[in-house]
Amino acid sequence: MKKVLKFLAIAFVGLVLVACGQAAQNSGSDSDGGSGGTGETFEVGVAIYQFNDNFMTLYREELDAYFKKLGEETGNTYNLDIQDGKQDQATQTEQINNFIAQGKDIILANLVDPTAAGTIINSAKAANIPVVFINREPEVAELEIWPGKTAYVGADATQSGTYQGEIIAATDSKGDINGDGTVTYITLFGDPANVDAQQRTTYSVKALDDAGIKREALAEPYLANWDTAKGQEVTAAALEQFGDKLEVVFANNDGMAVGAVTAIKAAGRTVGKDILVVGVDAIPDAMELLGKGELTGTVLNDHFNQSHTAANIAVELMSGKDVSPYYWVNYVKVTKAEDAELKEAEARKETIDEIKERYAKRDADK
Ligand code: BGC
C-alpha cells in the first residue's frame, strides 16, 4: 500500500512539473517575455557584423558560453541563433527581419552600419521584440525611439584612445625615438562608420597633446578595415616612404597592430628600440607579441564583461523588465600580461540625459 501511495505521489508531482514546464515554455516564447522561472525556453537572435573578426569572435564565443551557463544556473533554455552579417548591412537587415518574423524573444545586434539602428528599432518595436546593441554604438537619438526596451552595451571608445596615447607618453622616449622634439606617427584606421575607430584616432593623439608632447602625423590615417593583412600592407608602405622618420604606429585595433609588427620586422626595425606600436583589444596574438617585447602596449577591450552584461540585460528584457539605455564596461591599459586578466566587473549605467551632457562637453573640449 505504502508503495502504491508513493508511486501515486511521484506520478502526481511529475504531472504538475510537466504542466508547469509547458506553461512556462509557452510564456517564454511569447514576445512579451516570460516570468524568468525555471524551465522556460527563450529564442535569442544574435546578428554579428561579420564572423571574420578576431575581437568579435572572442565576444561571440563568450556570449554563447555565458548563455549556456545562465541556462544551467536557472534551468531555462536559451536558444541562440547567431548570424554572420558578412560585413553587408543589406544581408544583416534581412537576417534581423527574419528574427522578427520568427518571433524571437530578443535581438542582440552588432550592426554592420550603426546608422541602420533606427530602422531596426522601428521594425522590432512593431513586433514588440526588444533590441540590445553591442560593440558598434548607434546615435543617441536612436535609443530614444523605444525607451526601456532598447540599450547599447559597449566600452567608451574615447577611453581606449586616451589609454593608447598615455601608454606611448609613459615610455622612456615618450614616442620621440630620435630625440628631435616631435613624435612622428601614423594611424591604422579601422572603419569610417565605426565610432571606436573615429574616437581612438582622435583621442590617442589628443593624449599626447594633453601630456605636452609635440606630434606630427606623417600621413592621413590609413584605412585598414581592422584587418591584420591590410595593417601589414599599409605599414610596409609607410616604412618604405618615411623610413626612420616613422616613430610610432597607433593601430585602432590589435589585428592591425599585429600586421604592423610583421611589416616592421620585415623592414629590419625593432619595436621598443627604434619604433613603438600600440593597439586595442588584447587579443591572444597581441598578448604573445607583448610578452616577447615586440608590441609596446595594448588596451583590453573587455569582451568578457561586455558579453555578460549584454546577456544579463537580454534576460531582464525577456522577463518583461525595462532597462537603462547605456551600459559601459571599462577599458584597461595593458603593458604586461597580468593587466589583461579577465575578472567580473559591474557595468556603469548612463541615462539619455547624462550621455547627451557628457557628449556635448566632450565635443566642446576637442
Ligand atoms: C574592436 C575591433 C573590432 C571592432 C568590430 C572594435 O571594438 O576593437 O577589433 O574589429 O570592434 O566592430
Could you explain how this protein is built, in words?
The protein folds into 2 domains: 41-155 and 302-330, Response regulator (Rossmann fold, 3-Layer(aba) Sandwich), CATH 3.40.50; 158-300, 3-Layer(aba) Sandwich (Rossmann fold), CATH 3.40.50.2300. The protein is built from 11 helices and 14 strands. It has helices at 2-29, 54-74, 89-101, 117-126, 157-169, 195-210, 228-242, 254-266, 284-291, 303-318, 352-365, and strands at residues 41-48, 77-84, 106-109, 131-134, 150-154, 183-189, 215-217, 222-223, 248-251, 276-278, 298-300, 326-328, 332-334, 348-350. The strands form 3 sheets. It has a 7-stranded mixed β-sheet with strand order 2-1-3-4-5-12-14, with helices on both faces. Strands 6, 7, 8, 9 and 10 form a 5-stranded parallel β-sheet that branches. Strand 3 (106-109), helix 4 (117-126) and strand 4 form a beta-alpha-beta unit. Residues 1-36 have low confidence and may be disordered. Residues 49, 53, 55-56, 135-136, 194, 196, 226, 253, 255, 280-281, 301 line the site of beta-D-glucopyranose.
Helix and strand pattern:
HEHEHEHEEHEHEEHEHEHEHEEEH
Q: How many DSSP E strands? A: 14
Distance between the termini: 83 Å
**Helicity, as a percent range:** 40-55%
Strand order of the largest sheet: 2-1-3-4-5-12-14
Broad CATH class of the largest domain: Alpha Beta
Per DSSP, what share of the residues sits in E-state strands of 2 or more residues? Answer: 15-25%
The second-level CATH architecture of the largest domain is: 3-Layer(aba) Sandwich
